[in-house]
Amino acid sequence: MSGESALVRDYPIERIDRDGRKTDVDRVTIEEPLEIRVGTQTLAVTMRTPGNDFELAAGFLAAEGIVSRREEIVRIEHCREVRSAEEEGNVVVVRTTAPATGAMDRARRLLLTTSSCGLCGKGSIEALHGSFPPISSGSKVDEDVLARLPDRLRDAQAAFAESGGLHGAGIFTLAGEPQVVREDVGRHNAVDKAIGTLLLAGLLPLEESILFVSGRASFEIVQKALAAGVPFVAAVSAPSSLAIDLARDSGITLVAFLRPGGFNVYSRGDRLLRPAGAR
After folding, report:
1. Which residues, other chains included, contact 150 with Cβ-Cβ below 8 Å and sequence gap of 6+?
2. H or E stretch including 245?
């Protein structure tokens, strides 16, 4: 396969191995900035892989507490009045039913408290709980279902197979069936795209769903699950301490190091069901 798609681009390279040096072509993940505006106000700029931009914006707004239901979004479109060629297709404008000023102010305060230069630890968690109540779902999941998620996600990551440079995020049913899978150079963007897709379909809150990510379980990943009402978060790699604290305080089942043969449970393990006959 050659050429360019929305997710990857061909770059000429020199490849060096035991047999020497030769010219080749590498499939590389595309990364470009996306500016997200609510009305006329800029809320954020994120580096992302182009594609599913409207879903990304919707998921981001849900995570920041600006919207929680499909009915609160009037319209999403790319900005028609760009100032440069670089902005073409890289500015998304969201019109909401809520007055933009109050919602934007709340979101900016929340973004400050969850940024690397903002408040830390319990202060960040308390700020989130001012917008998102803890999850009280009584849903249960078989441990075998979780064990199958890495393969299910990998099978759906077509662009990762081409470039090896994209994170994947999937929303799965409690039986392990994929509801939506999205890819992006940023793990948090992939989550926003997945959640935003289901928000625009009118399916939030996701009270009987599992969020699975291909990398680490960071604070912001658990935050996005909390905002979407997802009771289960699973990750291939390690969780951060603040992700664990937020999961425990928010009633989220957090699983990490999900690999063939087992995984670690960091919170609400009572929601996991052992297979019949297992010790």
Report:
1. 212, 236, 258, 259, 260
2. helix 241-250
14-23, 158-167, 257-266: least confident range: 158-167
What CATH number does the domain containing 55 carry? Answer: 3.10.20.10
Dmax over Cα atoms in the chain, in whole Å?
Answer: 64
Same domain, 114 and 161: no
Domain that holds residue 65: 32-129
Beta bridge pairs of residue 28: 9
Per the annotation, the verdict on 117 as an active-site residue is yes
Helix (H, G, I), strand (E, B) or coil at 250: helix
Q: What is the pTM of this model?
A: 0.85
Query: Tens of pLDDT along 111-157?
Result: 544 443 333 455 556 666 667 889 999 999 999 999 999 999 988 87
Check 1, 85, 117, 278 and give the catalytic one: 117
Q: In whole angstroms, how far apart are CA 199 and each of 22, 25, 73, 79, 155?
A: 48, 38, 10, 21, 24
Burial status of residue 34 (CB atoms within 10 A of its CB: 0-12, 13-18, 19 or more): buried
Hey, how many other C-beta atoms are within 10 angstroms of the C-beta on 208?
A: 16
- For the chain, the average pLDDT equals 84
